[in-house]
């Protein structure tokens, strides 16, 4: 019989630290097979942000309750309908002007997780509020090696004027540690990988240089530790460990290929070499890193910006070469609205890829998606109207059995999005009285 293993067990070697996935040997024998057992799977919390709102006519289900049809943008989520809560009607009042004039995009991103009105400035005196992810990280982040993880697919700036007198810091960040300190996102898959698997803080420079010179995997330096651990595992856990290490090596190889392809395209000097030339590949690599971080309990809190707010990226690879932001000002032109729906659906397809990854990872009596709370959406509704009510928002995952998913729920009135966030914090074991403009808890997460 295998001996019990600490959840904090890692594999080490030459500056590398490789966290482990959930194994049966991490539970006392008396607790195995019981989801609610003390020391069971932790709840993970993630926020996925998309810019420029959505084509709401192709986003919002016509029916409420459980018996609803997924509209075209949400169709990629069909395999996860039982894990999905479509939340219609929530609002972000602090993304509105409220006397501050234009700048809806900057306010949308900075308000998305804070529920606070950003101070209008393009200077260094930025100020908004503490974001929900950082409230959670402050309270429970010490339980994992990384208190939180901030990722994205477009580089960010923390200075300069990016939107009608608002600092670029507002439109390029959604995570805020303090009122004036944004948490910069990592967009290079290689650097994110090394943050997850480096030693204390990061893999040593000597280790990285030696691996690159010998074309070795980070796993090669921890093989002896892996062999010793394998001797302590039961048959099922040995198989899980082998599958996990194989997936780590495959992800590392994908990042290496992306670096080679990026270098071949001679990217600008300020573009990190590890970013894949194809946006789809970039999104999926970063999504895999989030899943890996959650699987290994390296962190339980993550934010992910699919693009900066106001992004004018073109999507020629799906036959939409037009700039995203330009299209969002469609003026009710049906052709432009159809293109926005196509972009929205592309983003949803990549999100579905991430969800499938979570659902494929067994943990305890369920899977990683069962033990997660994943918010996806924007603080702009229709990009042409720049409205900040009836927002496109989804909640995926069952939160360790604390969410009754599989429904479309409409919330009437000006209910703040931050009411949802308070309810999610409760499920993370983080009790706070208020957050930003919250007015209470959202009581619709359980039927």
Question: What key phrases describe this protein's structure?
Answer:
447 residues, alpha/beta, Alkaline Phosphatase, subunit A, seven-stranded mixed beta sheet
Describe this structure in words.
The chain has 447 residues and is α/β, with parallel strands linked by helices. Strand 1 and strand 2 form a beta hairpin. Helix 4 packs parallel to helix 8, helix 7 packs antiparallel against helix 8 and helix 8 runs parallel beside helix 10.
Strand portion: 5-15%
- Helix coverage percent: 25-40%
How many whole angstroms does the radius of gyration measure?
22 Å
The outline comes out as globular
The number of helical segments is 11
Mean pLDDT: 89
What CATH architecture of the largest domain do you see? 3-Layer(aba) Sandwich
How many discrete structural domains? 2
Q: What is the H level of CATH, i.e. the homologous superfamily of the largest domain?
A: Alkaline Phosphatase, subunit A
Q: Do you know the CATH topology of the largest domain?
A: Alkaline Phosphatase, subunit A
End-to-end Cα distance: 42 Å
Order of helices and strands: EEEEHHEEEHEEHHHHHEEEHHEEEEEH
Query: Spans of 5+ residues with little confidence (pLDDT < 50)?
Result: 29-38, 200-204
Reading off the top of the CATH hierarchy, the class of the largest domain is best stated as Alpha Beta
Q: How many strands appear in the DSSP assignment?
A: 17
Going across the major beta sheet, what is the strand order?
5-10-3-15-16-4-17
Largest sheet: 7 strands, mixed
Which structural class fits the helix and strand makeup?
alpha/beta
């Amino acid at each position: 019989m295998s001996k019990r293993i600490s959840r904090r067990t890692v594999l080490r070697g030459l500056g590398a630290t490789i966290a482990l996935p959930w194994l049966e040997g991490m539970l006392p024998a008396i607790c195995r097979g019981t989801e609610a057992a003390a020391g069971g799977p932790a709840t993970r919390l993630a926020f996925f942000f998309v810019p420029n709102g959505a084509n709401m006519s192709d986003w919002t289900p016509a029916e409420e309750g459980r018996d609803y049809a997924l509209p075209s943008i949400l169709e990629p989520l069909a395999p996860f309908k039982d894990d999905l809560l479509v939340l219609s009607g929530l609002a972000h009042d602090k993304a509105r002007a409220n006397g501050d004039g234009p700048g809806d995009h900057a306010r949308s991103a900075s308000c998305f997780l804070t529920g606070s009105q950003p101070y209008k400035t393009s200077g260094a005196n930025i100020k908004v509020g503490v974001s929900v992810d950082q409230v959670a990280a402050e309270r429970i982040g010490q339980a994992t090696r990384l208190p939180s993880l901030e990722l994205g697919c477009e580089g960010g700036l923390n200075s300069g004027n990016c939107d009608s007198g608002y600092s670029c810091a507002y439109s390029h960040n959604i995570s805020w540690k303090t009122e004036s300190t944004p948490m910069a996102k990592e967009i290079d898959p290689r650097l994110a990988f090394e943050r997850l698997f480096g030693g204390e803080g990061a893999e040593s420079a000597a280790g990285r240089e030696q691996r690159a010179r010998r074309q070795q995997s980070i796993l090669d330096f921890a093989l002896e530790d892996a062999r010793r651990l394998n001797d302590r595992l039961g048959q099922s856990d040995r198989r899980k460990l082998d599958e996990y290490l194989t997936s780590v090596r495959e992800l590392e190889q994908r990042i290496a290929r992306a670096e080679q392809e990026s270098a071949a395209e001679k990217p600008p000097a300020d573009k990190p070499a590890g970013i894949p030339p194809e946006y789809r590949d970039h999104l999926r690599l970063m999504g895999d890193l989030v899943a890996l971080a959650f699987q290994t309990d390296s962190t339980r809190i993550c934010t992910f910006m699919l693009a900066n707010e106001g992004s004018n990226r073109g999507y020629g690879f799906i036959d939409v070469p037009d700039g995203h932001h330009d299209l969002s000002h469609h003026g009710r032109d049906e052709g432009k609205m159809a293109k926005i729906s196509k972009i929205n659906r592309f983003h949803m397809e990549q999100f579905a890829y991430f969800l499938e990854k979570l659902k494929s990872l067994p943990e305890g009596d369920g899977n990683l998606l069962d033990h997660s709370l994943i918010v996806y959406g924007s603080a702009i509704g229709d990009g042409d109207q720049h409205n900040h009510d009836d927002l496109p928002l989804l909640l995926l995952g069952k939160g360790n059995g604390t969410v009754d998913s599989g429904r479309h729920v409409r919330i009437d009135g000006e209910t703040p999005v931050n009411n949802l966030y308070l309810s999610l914090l409760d499920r993370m074991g983080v009790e706070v009285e208020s957050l930003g403009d919250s007015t209470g808890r959202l009581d619709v997460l359980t039927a």
